[in-house]
Specification:
alpha/beta, seven-stranded mixed beta sheet, 15 helices, globular
């Protein structure tokens, strides 16, 4: 019986004894044991009201969907309740969270076009307690065309989120509220992304630590300014996450420095390393948080999620 613990539950009861000076191997082992046992790694204070994040970047391949699903799963490991809305017709977030999204499955298409409620569409993630998902199907690809003639078409997602009985303040809803809503956008600046920008209060931008990732960022920020001026004055770029970071290269360090100099405290201190395990996880219909909880990628996403929670509590 190593360390006096026979079960994962006993380890969880004594997890407060593991301080920051524990070795990386010990942290990885602890994370793996707790996740496999379905036990949150720690309980952080919940926000006083639901925080709605838009995860967007019109450049593809920057880790947008990967960051959405892994941050969402990581937050549940910190005792938070999370809702993920998949707005990408490719449905990659739905795949990683093990949610059915074949053509014809009730999805965000029915939410936007037919006006179905999130309550009727959200499904619990089988691998993460406290995580709910509204999937996306290929049907969503036609939603932009179908919404063109609809009155207040850019407000439909916001109305659906605001109408959810578990979205709001702790005072109004209580312990059953969602703490975080993540909207995973397609790699474009079309009507789907516009709906997300109108619905959200905070924007999370994943930026790949490579030069090309900086190109087009100005266009995205200009769009945010336009939305803020005309449709959603509460929208703020609160969080920027560096992804696919390779500490061995000068290029990655240079891009990271440039991003931090320009955006300051909006950039999370935690950068997500380039990781094979993070890339492998979706092929097993999992996030890296359950696929390999002790991997550097999983531990980095867990630390990034912790930063998001702590920053929110300080605001």
């Amino acid at each position: 019986m190593t360390g006096g613990f026979r079960t994962a539950a006993q380890l969880a009861e004594h997890s407060a004894g593991f301080e920051d000076d524990q070795t990386p191997l010990a942290r990885a082992a602890q994370a793996t044991v707790l996740v496999r046992a379905g036990i949150p790694q720690e309980q952080l204070s919940r926000p006083s009201e639901t925080r709605v994040f838009v995860v967007a970047n019109q450049k593809g391949g920057v880790g947008k969907t990967t960051s959405t699903v892994n941050l969402a799963a990581a937050l549940t490991q910190l005792g938070q309740r999370v809702l993920v809305l998949d707005l990408d017709p490719q449905g990659n977030a739905s795949t990683a969270l093990n949610i059915e999204h074949r053509q014809g499955t009730p999805s965000t298409y029915e939410l936007l076009v037919d006006g179905l409620s999130i309550v009727d569409l959200a499904k619990p993630c089988p691998d993460a307690a406290g995580l709910w998902v509204v999937p996306a199907t290929i049907d969503l690809a036609g939603a932009e065309i179908e919404l063109v003639s609809v009155v207040a078409r850019e407000q439909r997602l916001k109305k659906a989120i605001d109408a959810h009985p578990r979205v709001g303040t702790a005072q109004a809803i209580g312990e059953e509220r969602f703490d975080y809503v993540f909207i995973d956008c397609p790699p474009s600046l079309g009507l789907l992304t516009l709906n997300a920008l109108v619905a959200g209060a905070e924007m999370l931008i994943p930026i790949q630590a490579e030069y090309y990732a900086l190109e087009g960022l100005g266009q995205l920020l200009a769009t945010v300014d336009m939305v803020r001026a005309h449709l959603n004055p509460d929208l703020a770029v609160s969080t920027i996450l560096l992804t696919m970071y390779d500490a061995r290269t000068r290029l990655a360090a240079g891009v990271a420095q440039e991003v931090r100099e320009h955006f300051g405290d909006q950039v999370l201190k935690t950068a997500i390393p380039r990781s094979v395990r993070v890339s492998e996880a979706p092929s097993y219909a999992q996030t890296v948080m359950t696929y390999d909880p002790g991997s550097p990628g999983a531990l980095s996403y867990l630390e990034a999620a912790r930063e998001i929670v702590v920053r929110g509590s300080l605001q």
